[in-house]
Write a structure and sequence with these properties.
- The chain is mainly alpha-helical.
- 61% of the residues lie in helices and 0% in strands.
- It is built from two helices and no strands.
- The longest helix is centred in the last third of the chain and has 37 residues.
Length: 82
Amino acid sequence: MVDQGDLRGGTVAPRPEGGRQPFRVGQFFREVRSELRQVAWPNRAEVINYTVVTFVTLVLLIGLIFVLNYAFAKGVFWLFKT
């Protein structure tokens, strides 16, 4: 496998024996911060809209599951006449 290096165009330190780079905590957090800067974060209106859509979908699915559970329970009780 060819090592393509860092996507930002920097140089990559040679890997030690075993093929894995040593884990560096500071480097990890710098890379996480760099990646999070590239994320397209939603604005307040988008977050509110996504939240409302999520809750409406949740309520509809809970209602559907409740109705189906009730119908199947009544059907089983009717089938076995208990």
